[in-house]
Amino acid sequence: MQQDSQFLIDMLHLAQRIVDCTASSSLNDFYEDVKLQDDTLRRLLKIGKTARRISPETRQQMIAINWCAMDEMKSRLMQMIMRLMIDRVWRSPILKYLR
Question: What is the mean pLDDT of residues 88-98?
Fold first, then answer.
C-alpha cells in the first residue's frame, strides 16, 4: 500500500507537470513545438506505465479512476506516436530534398 501511495504521488506530479507546461499553449503551439510534444507524451507514457503498478486493492478503493483506460494509455499513445513519427519523417527537409 505504501508503494501504491508513492506511485499515485508520482502520477500526480507528472500530470501536474503536463498541466503546467501546456496551460498557456494552444493546439497550434503544441503542434509546432516538438519539444513540448515529446515532453508531454513522455510524461503520459510514464503515467500509463506507473498506473499498471497500482495494486488491485488500491484500484478497488479508488473507483472514480478509470483504471482500464489508464492501463490502455501506453499502447494507445505508442500507436499515436508512431503515426506522428511517420508524419514527421515524411515532412522532413531531407526527404523533401531527396524527392
Answer: 65
* Residue 22, C-alpha cell as written in the block: 501546456
Q: What's the mean per-residue pLDDT of the chain?
A: 86
Instruction: Give me the residue spans of the domains in the chain.
Output: 2-98
- Concatenating the DSSP letter of every residue in 7-33 gives HHHHHHHHHHHHHHHHTT--HHHHHH-
Return the closest-CA partner of residue 89 out of 34, 29, 22: 34
Q: Helix 2-22 crosses helix 34-51 at what angle (to 10 degrees)?
A: 160
Distance CA 64, CA 44 (A): 19
Contact 71, 51 (CB under 8 A): yes
